[in-house]
Amino acid sequence: SQKIEQNSEALNIQEGKTATLTCNYTNYSPAYLQWYRQDPGRGPVFLLLIRENEKEKRKERLKVTFDTTLKQSLFHITASQPADSATYLCALEQSNYQLIWGAGTKLIIKP
Amino acid sequence: DGGITQSPKYLFRKEGQNVTLSCEQNLNHDAMYWYRQDPGQGLRLIYYSQIVNDFQKGDIAEGYSVSREKKESFPLTVTSAQKNPTAFYLCASRRGQGGEQFFGPGTRLTVL
Fold it and tell me: For testing the chain A interface, which of B44, B45, B101, B109 should be mutated: the one with the most A CBs within 10 Å?
């Protein structure tokens, strides 16, 4: 069956360091992969989308990589700040345009 | 400002009651979605609609119903047939097929 896995344990990072979050998937060949940020009690907010033929995408301090051979996406936040603390969700876009969601990884940036 | 609104923010339901969650968008998006979020799980799709007067079941539609009479509105009814309705419900919209989804602030439903 199709499966998306994100680190279930919270990731603690010191302020100023680079945070790296992982999204692994099996039994699927997505055309797109998306990353969202979700704060407690609120709806997710879109961050980045990367296509299967793109290796890397950047937006300000954010960088996403997509390795279709490893079936893995990495999400990096450079120069991390306490305000970056949130849960980050990855989602795969199916051929019928529906999204399959990971459970998210909670990121905590310590001052 | 354009966006998606959901109401109420918190909702309490007695067992055996039907309740309706509101979702309105002024983004002029064609597609709208309802998701359910439970702790430790990814978002699960309940229903979606690509166009007015048409909607399709998602992965967990049992015990839920929707309507799409207007482009701006996509209300979700949680019926008494839904045995475990306590969850955080999220409404989203998208301009067309594929790409970014825009989410509302969510409704937290609790069964008493």
Answer: B101
Q: How far is CA B46 from CA A11, A23, B60, B82, in A?
A: 30, 23, 5, 12
Candidates B35, B88, B101; nearest CB to A46: B101
Which residues of chain A are within 8 Å of residue B90 when distances are taken between CB atoms? 43-44
Where does residue B97 fall: left (phi above 0), alpha (psi -120 to 50 degrees), or beta otherwise? beta
Distance CA B72, CA A23 (A): 33
Average pLDDT over residues B6-33: 95
- CA of B8 vs chain A CAs: smallest distance (Å): 13
Q: Is B95 on the interface with A (CB under 8 A)?
A: no
Q: What is the 3-state secondary structure (H, E, C) of chain A?
A: CCEEEECCCCEEEECCCCEEEEEEEECCCCCEEEEEEECCCCCCEEEEEEECCCCEEEECCEEEEEECCCCEEEEEECCCCHHHCEEEEEEEECCCCCEEECCCEEEEEEC
pLDDT digits (tens, 9 = 90+) for A73-84: 999 999 999 999
Span B69-90, average pLDDT: 95
CB contact under 8 A, B98 and A93: yes
Cα A43 versus chain centre, distance: 16
Residue of A nearest to B40 (CA): A103
